[in-house]
Structure formats: C-alpha cells, structure tokens
Design goal:
31% of the residues lie in helices and 14% in strands. It contains ten helices and eleven strands. It has two domains: 107 residues, NAD(P)-binding Rossmann-like Domain (Rossmann fold, 3-Layer(aba) Sandwich); 175 residues, NAD(P)-binding Rossmann-like Domain (Rossmann fold). Helix 6 links the parallel strand 5 and strand 6. The two termini are 20 Å apart. By secondary structure, it is α/β, with parallel strands linked by helices. Strands 7-6-5-8-9-10-11 form a seven-stranded parallel sheet. Strands 1-2-3-4 form a four-stranded parallel sheet, covered by helices on one side. This is Hydroxyacid dehydrogenase.
Length: 311
C-alpha cells in the first residue's frame, strides 16, 4: 500500500535546506504531532529516539533515513519489517563524492603517498605503480560502484563487480555473484570495497580473501569498516604481501591512537570524510525533494530500503 499522505516532520535537525527542499516538492512541513504522516530523520544515529517517536506516532507512514548505509538502524528496521511503513535511505545520493574519494585513495596508495608524505629528506626510489590498464575488483554494485566505474573508465581498467544479485552492471567488464569473490580476487591489482554492511557481508574480506590476492595488490574501503577483518588486514600489510590499503572507514571506528593500522606499511587512512557535510547537505536535500514529491504524488520512491535484505 502507498503511504498515507499528510504533514511531514523533519527531526531532529530541520536544516533550512531540508525544509526548503520538502516544501518545494509540495510537502507540508510541520512540527511532529499526531497529524504527522511523513518523517525525515536527519541524525546518523539515535535509533532509540527514532524508535520512541515511531511508537508514539503510529500513523507515520513514510520514514526517510539520512545515510546510504542503514546498519546503525539494522535492529530497528528488523523490528519494523512488517509495520506497513515505507522506508527510504540516501543510498546513491552521496555516490559521487565517495567514489571520488575512493579513487583518490587508490591513486595515493599506488603511488606510495603514505610513505612519501612522511619523508623528511630526498629519497629516490622506483616504487609506485600506475592504475592504467589494471585489473580492478569492485565489491558491491550500488551507486558508489556505478560512479566509480565512470571515474575508472579513462584509466582503461578491466573491472569485475561482485554483487549479491545475478545481474550485469553496465560499464563493468564482467559481473559475478558474491560466492565467486575468492575466484576473482586472484588477478586483482586493486580492490574497492563499496558494499552495504549486513550480517551477510560483515567480514566479507577476511584472511582467506586477502591471501587470495596477488602479491602487492591494493585494498580500498570507503563503505563500512566491518566489511574487512581488521586483524587480517594488519597482518597482510605488516607481512609486506599486501601492497597497501586506503581506508576511509575502519573497525573499530574511530580508530584508536596507537592502533597498528596507523603505522602499517603503505596504509592511507582518512577519518570517514569521503562525504563531508558541505557535500552531503545539498545532496540529501535533493533526495528529500525527490521523495517528498513521491510521497505527495504517489510515485516511486528513490532509495527504497529492502527490509529483508537490510539495505
């Protein structure tokens, strides 16, 4: 059933850009009340507070979550799987900046930037590799993967996308299902991890997968830290067998001071900033505009959450 149309509340932070986007699409933005039918949730956390709001306002029929990944709300979504509400996320909305960051990490690691930026003297060596013509594996097939394929095209790489569904991804050289991940890693020079974090994908890149990679391959993770086994990654980097890693996400996160990853060879870490607030606010406003239009007009939502799959 389509959601029941009515006033929309934007909480806990009703940023002017979000209110304007909803209003421009025909939505009626009002404070949270018994009349509320649409809820735009703007916090990346506070799942317990959101759950209380939903319990106190059972007439809410559509909920918009703020991020592409919804793992922070996994338990809540599981409990509300059959509540009849429509749930949407921002999946795909931030794909461009995250893909851009992923490419930057890959290039930095391939060119040995982590070591070179720490140099305090002129050190000449021949270390460093090009991305041109490389064998690339992309784990995940969502919006980030699609944008990454566009960015990688000028480098004339050969790309293998690994995904849950048995369906081709336009722009990829080939597409395989997740059960074949270990098989395709054997020739990968660069691996991008851009999948959603679910119970099925947690630790999808572990010791066995890292061992399957050719010597000196590079791993880039811009999705969720839990997709990669951190201990196995540290071991692979310290052994020198893995060529390097570019990480915008880690497990644990924040990564504590003194953690071995900080000093691991050729490891470039950024503190989960692939999409900064300056980038995400206008992009989330755009997603709000699209989905408010769908809410009031009875058309298809963008980023609808598959509550069975968990993303």
């Amino acid at each position: 059933m389509p959601p029941e149309v009515g006033p929309i509340a934007i909480v806990p932070d009703a940023d002017r850009a979000f209110v304007d986007a909803a209003t421009a699409s025909g939505g009626r933005v009002e404070p949270l009340s018994a009349a509320t039918r649409g809820l735009v949730w703007t916090s990346s956390a506070e799942a317990e507070r959101l759950e209380r709001i939903l319990a106190e306002h059972p007439a809410i029929s559509w909920v918009q979550l703020p991020w592409a990944g919804v793992d922070a709300f996994a338990d809540l979504l599981a409990r509300h799987r059959d509540d009849g509400r429509t749930w949407t996320s921002a999946k795909g909305a931030y794909a461009q900046p995250v893909a851009e960051h992923a490419l930057g990490l890959a290039l930095g690691v391939l060119r040995e930037f982590p070591r070179r930026v720490r140099a305090t003297g002129w050190e000449v060596d021949e270390r460093g590799r090009s991305l041109y013509g490389a064998e690339v594996v992309i784990v995940g097939a969502g919006g980030i993967a699609v944008e990454l394929l566009h960015l990688l095209a000028p480098f004339r790489v050969r790309t293998t996308v690994v995904r849950r569904a048995d369906a081709a991804v336009p722009g990829a050289t080939r597409t395989v299902t997740t059960d074949r991940l270990a098989d395709v890693l054997g020739t990968a020079e660069v691996v991008f991890v851009v999948a959603a974090l679910t119970e099925e994908t947690r630790g999808i890149v572990g010791a066995a997968e890292l061992s399957a990679l050719p010597a000196h391959a590079v791993l880039v993770n811009v999705a969720r830290g839990g997709l990669v086994d951190t201990d196995a990654l540290v071991t692979a980097l310290e052994s020198g067998r893995l060529g390097g890693a570019g990480l915008d996400v880690t497990d644990p996160e924040p990564l504590p001071a003194g953690h071995p990853l900080w000093n691991a060879p050729n490891c470039l870490i950024t503190p989960h900033v692939a999409d900064t607030e300056a980038m995400t606010v206008p992009l989330f406003a755009r997603r709000i505009a699209v989905n408010v239009a769908a809410f009031v007009g009875g058309t298809a939502f963008d980023g609808r959450i598959d509550l069975d799959a968990g993303y």
